Amino acid sequence: MHRDKIEASLKTALKHIDDSTRTISSSNDKNLLSDSLWSALAEIEYAVFLLSIIEGEKSENPSWKHASSSRQPVELECALTSARKLIESARVKIEKDNLEKAYEETWTARNLLLKAHDAMEKKIKEARNQI
Q1: What's the pTM value of the predicted model, to 2 decimals?
Q2: N or C: less crowded end of the chain, CB within 10 Å?
Q3: What is the DSSP string of 25-38?
Q4: Interhelix angle for 99-130 vs 76-95, to 10°?
């Protein structure tokens, strides 16, 4: 039951990431970009939550959670591309019943999307300061 919800959430997150990528390349609408990025983050959070219910008890404090939480800034488009690849890989892992690896990849994609959001916010602040 949770797998169907996880797969649907990951699929929807990919759609929102694609929307974000298109927005970056076709317009400067920061509100549209923010909305699509937030929607992708919401879907990923939900998938991470469901995966944590399934996998969380097996590994209370995995090392990959700490490794993926670095505070280094990222470039917005690179973060979106990397997150997209991780989510696609996680979907394959779920199909192959490798939920532990899917959890890790989804968690990492979540962190990249959070960093992408930070990069977007930084660009918005810089644009406001130039006015």
Answers
A1: 0.85
A2: C
A3: HH---HHHHHHHHH
A4: 160
